[in-house]
Write a structure and sequence with these properties.
This protein is mainly β and 97 residues long. The protein has 1 helix and 6 strands.
Length: 97
């Protein structure tokens, strides 16, 4: 066994949106839940906050997709799609009686 965590596709229990989940990193790994929809560079800039990271979704014909850190060494012309941490959309307002 390689020790690498597999990326799984499921649905968010809160909003039912399709999401990717994976343990990213080797030492201080993060349990990442990311949206499945790829973002344009403009959408990435809009979505990125100190509490919402953008991830590289690396894939190849011979392996399952894997979430990777986007750090200062990440190539600006990366050919892989980039996705954001998942945040449920705001709930519709309800009236309490």
């Amino acid at each position: 066994m390689s020790g690498r965590a597999a990326t799984t596709t499921t649905r968010c229990p809160g909003c039912r949106a399709p999401i990717l989940t994976q343990l990213v990193g080797h030492r201080a790994a993060l349990n990442v839940t990311a949206d499945i929809r790829p973002l344009t560079p403009e959408q990435q800039a809009e979505a990125r906050t100190p509490h919402r990271l953008i991830w590289c979704l690396k894939s190849s014909p011979h392996s399952t997709p894997r979430l990777r850190w986007i750090d200062r060494l990440h190539p600006p012309d990366c050919p892989h799609p980039h996705v954001a941490d998942h945040h449920c959309p705001p709930a519709a307002p309800t009236t309490l009686f």
